[in-house]
Amino acid sequence: xxTIYKSDTKRVFLTFDDGxxxxxxxxxxILKQENVKATFFILGSNVDSRKDVVKRMYEEGHYLANHGxxxxxxxxxxxxxxxxxxxxxxxxxxxxxxEVPDYNSHLFRFPGGLAGGKYAEIKKEAKxxxxxxxxxxxxxxxxxxxxxxxxxxVEFEMTRLTETMESKNSLVILMHDAAAKSVTADxxxxxxxxxxxxxxxxxxxxxxxxxxKDKGFEVLDKINLYVSGNEMLENVxxxxxxLIKHDTLALEIVYDAERSDxxxxxxxxxxxxLDVEVVK
Length: 280
Known about the structure:
The protein is an alpha/beta fold.
């Protein structure tokens, strides 16, 4: 995860915290229409009342990551063990909702982020405890500002996104799908359009699924590449070679046109056989 914010080519991770809520369904509708995958950092306390929404996320190919159970700082940050306990409690809710007994995202986002604040030392210790349990964490390097004010507007969110994107190649965008964040759903089509226009989404739609730490490096069991009608698939694969290592078990190719598919390619002189699932 240390290299998530670094890339020679443009890529974007759309992330949503604090759901599921009634807003989540609208966001899922938009993502489906746009053929975009996202990462949802699920709050365990919201799962039981919206199991159908969580299952829909999973079935539509989004990554179900972990945001703890309570989002109550005094509780989750009472000790490093409390952070791990809330991770496990949330994970139990998710795997029950999607009916996958062995599901574990291995990816956590600290409520409020990892850095700074009153509980900085607890979070630092919790990060190490999570790593010992094969759980990595990620924050963000861009946002729409939907947690910054109660007077949200689409214009405000687009402005904040533009300001925080700057000239970054690799974006992890923080958004929220809590009940009070309907404006984020309203802004999402414009957000996706902006990213496409600037070359992000069209090059890589990244879904990191079943992430785990193995022998000191990250293993991606499945990732997505978006291939436009006039691009050569092999070129896109080579451009994103840092994501596609010999450790990758499966690759999903998302086409926007009728194409022939490849099941093997060559990266840096190393033949790579791909388990390809074609989505048109």
